Amino acid sequence: MSSTWHILGAGSLGSLWACRLARAGKPVRLILRSPQRLQDYTEAGGLTLVEQERRTSFAIPAETLDAETPIQRLLLACKAYDADKAVASIAHRLAPGAELILLQNGLGSQDEVAARVPRARCIFASSTEGAFREHDWQVNFAGHGFNWLGDPANPLAPTWLDDLAEAGIPHEWTPDILTRLWRKLALNCAINPLTVLYDCRNGGLTGHRCEVATLCAELADLLQRCGQPQAAENLENEVQRVIQATAANYSSMYQDVRNGRRTEIHYLLGHACRSAMRHGQPLPHLERLYRRLVEHLNSHGLPSD
Ligand code: NAP
């Protein structure tokens, strides 16, 4: 029998993974932030997955952060800004040889977590799947996508990838996970902040082509400098392709700001600007974009870290 999937964070992606693993008969336990959240969850009777308007409920067992059970495998499914603190609160429960799968978008939080639990194996993930919470404990599977997984410190694939295959979670093990994460970060930096500042859908950026091109040129330079030449290849073309293909969509950052939610800016544009500074590389347009976005968030009463 495969070992238990502890899943920290029963939000959108955490619930999506939990329901699919449970449906495939894999042992799953949710880790919730407080006794109050555990009580709410218990009263709800489990998680509900909504897929093409079909609702299926799963009575997945749950516990709080301070439960006693040892953790062999942890899917960390909180936001990037919560990752380090969340892992710190369960670090004492990690069994020898424990593995963590880090679902966070952007870069920087993975290194914070790895430094927090140096004896655990940290596997980085980059997901293009889309899910959102309609209510607490109910997740809507909104966009089919893919999951790339990899460990920058060890190219050997873990045996539990079979669990993902049996659960119908589309995935591939890649030695180039950092290239994937950098590429996704660059796409995000070129699109999402501008949609917030111009208050538009992704397609609205067709009216700001020169600005997007200038940002792409700086981002491609940064990727080269960070040892990620593959992530820099044809960046502007792909950014323009994504803008066209998702023209009717609002970016995730736009939606966060619109709904008064904290963004992951620190691990996206913030990470890009900090990396440039570390390399002594001036990127004036990207830095100006960062300052404008920070001002915008602050003026809306939202944190910018
Ligand atoms: P989300 O819906 O906000 O869920 C995050 C969950 O983490 C919440 O349920 C929150 O608990 C929980 N949490 C935070 N700190 C915790 C702690 N200390 N202990 C226990 N639980 C804790 O976020 P999400 O959309 O799933 O995103 C997770 C990550 O995946 C992000 O980095 C995001 O960028 C990335 N991602 C998301 C999607 C998507 O479609 N949603 C797609 C690709 C990548 P409470 O409910 O109690 O607040």
UniProtKB/TrEMBL annotation:
EC numbers, comma separated: 1.1.1.169
Catalytic reaction annotation: (R)-pantoate + NADP(+) = 2-dehydropantoate + NADPH + H(+)
Which residues does the UniProt record annotate as the domain Ketopantoate reductase N-terminal? 5-152
Any GO MF annotation of the entry: 2-dehydropantoate 2-reductase activity
- The record lists the membrane-crossing segments as none
Protein task:
Catalyzes the NADPH-dependent reduction of ketopantoate into pantoic acid.
Q: Spell out the family assignment given in the record's similarity comment.
A: Belongs to the ketopantoate reductase family.
- In its UniProt entry, what is this protein called? 2-dehydropantoate 2-reductase
Source organism of the structure: Pseudomonas bharatica CSV86
